[in-house]
Write a structure and sequence with these properties.
By secondary structure, the protein is an alpha+beta fold. The protein folds into two domains: 111 residues, D-amino Acid Aminotransferase, Chain A, domain 1; 154 residues, D-amino Acid Aminotransferase, Chain A, domain 2 (Alpha-Beta Barrel). The protein is 30% helix and 28% strand. It is built from nine helices and 16 strands. Strands 7, 8, 9, 10, 11, 12, 13, 14, 15 and 16 form a ten-stranded mixed β-sheet that branches. The chain has a six-stranded antiparallel β-sheet with strand order 2-1-6-5-3-4.
C-alpha cells in the first residue's frame, strides 16, 4: 500500500500539495491537538471514541472542530478509500490556524494524515519491553496535544538505557508512558491502572471493558512502590494493542516472564477488535 493522499481542511489532496502556512499557531506556538486511530480491514477502529476524545481535547484548549463527528467519519472513509487502505492509521490534527499576530487563535486548520502502521517485532510481545522511569507530568495530561517535547528531547537517554519508552511519575505515583497507558497486575491478580495525570486512552478504555468481564479491575492511584512489587505489567495504545512490560529501570517484573493475565488480555483484546470490525455499526 502506498499512501498518496491526505485531507487538508476538508479537501483530498496529493501528499506533495498537503501544506500548511508557517503562520499557523500549531507551528508557531505548539497550539494544536490530535487523535490517531487504526484502519483495520478497511474500518476505522473505535472511531466514535476517538472523535469524542478529539472534541474533548479541542474543547479543553478552546479550539473548535469545524466538522461534526458524522462529517468527519465520511471524510475518514473517503481518505481510506482513495488510498486503498485496508490496514493503516489516520492522524487528525487540529491547529489554532493562521494567526496574524502569532498569538490569538483564528479559524483552525484541520488535517487528516494517512500512514502505514508502525510494526513491532514479535519479540516485544513474547518477551516484553523495558521502560525508563522519568519524573515528569504533562502540562495538559487529559488532552492529546502535539507537544512531545520531553520524550523527544530525552530520546538519547532512553536509547542509552536500552529502553523501549519512558514511564512518567511524579516522584511517588505512576501516570503513563509517553505514548501509551500503563497497567500492572498485583499478587492478588487485580489489574490496576492510574487514574491521575494520564490520558484517557481509547485502547485503555476498551481493554478495561474487556478486563472487567474476566478480572478484578481498579482505576486508582498507582505508586512506584506498588509498581516495583507488581506481578505483571503491560502498556496499551492504538498501535501496540496490549504490550507486555518486563522491566522498569533496574527492577524486573516477574523475573522478566510474561504473566498469564497479560497473555489472556492480549488475546481477548484482539478478539474484541475483530468483533468490532465485523459489526455493521
Amino acid at each position: 500500500m502506498e499512501i498518496k493522499y491526505y485531507n487538508v481542511n476538508g479537501e483530498i489532496v496529493p501528499i506533495e500539495k498537503a501544506v500548511i502556512n508557517v503562520r499557523d499557531l500549531g507551528f508557531l506556538r505548539g497550539y494544536s491537538v490530535f487523535d490517531f486511530f487504526r484502519i483495520y480491514k478497511g474500518k476505522p477502529v473505535f472511531i466514535e471514541d476517538h472523535l469524542t476524545r478529539l472534541q474533548k481535547s479541542a474543547s479543553i484548549l478552546g479550539l473548535e472542530v469545524p466538522y461534526s463527528n458524522e462529517e468527519m467519519v465520511n471524510k475518514i472513509v473517503e481518505l481510506a478509500k482513495v488510498n486503498k487502505m485496508e490496514f493503516g492509521g489516520i492522524k487528525i490534527v487540529l491547529t489554532g490556524g493562521y494567526s496574524l499576530d502569532g498569538w490569538y487563535p483564528v479559524e483552525p486548520n484541520f488535517v487528516m494524515i494517512a500512514s502505514k502502521l508502525t510494526t513491532y517485532p514479535e519479540s516485544v510481545f513474547t518477551k516484553g519491553v523495558k521502560l525508563m522511569a522519568y519524573q515528569y507530568t504533562r502540562e495538559t495530561p487529559y488532552t492529546k496535544t502535539t507537544n512531545y517535547l520531553v520524550p523527544i528531547t530525552i530520546r538519547k537517554e532512553i536509547e542509552e538505557a536500552e529502553a523501549f519508552d519512558v514511564l512518567y511519575h511524579d516522584g511517588e505515583f505512576i501516570s503513563e508512558s509517553a505514548r501509551s497507558n500503563f497497567f500492572i497486575v498485583n499478587d492478588e491478580g487485580t489489574i490496576i491502572t492510574p487514574d491521575k495525570d494520564a490520558l484517557e486512552g481509547i485502547t485503555r478504555k476498551h481493554v478495561l471493558e474487556v478486563a472487567q468481564k474476566h478480572f478484578n479491575v481498579e482505576i486508582r492511584p498507582l505508586s512506584i512502590k506498588e509498581t516495583m512489587a507488581a506481578k505483571e505489567a503491560f502498556m496499551t495504545s492504538s498501535t501496540k494493542g496490549v504490550m507486555p512490560v518486563r522491566q522498569v529501570d533496574f527492577w524486573r517484573i516477574n523475573q522478566g516472564i510474561i504473566g498469564e493475565t497479560t497473555k489472556q488480555l492480549m488475546d481477548l483484546f484482539k478478539q474484541h477488535v475483530e468483533e468490532y470490525v465485523e459489526t455493521d455499526a
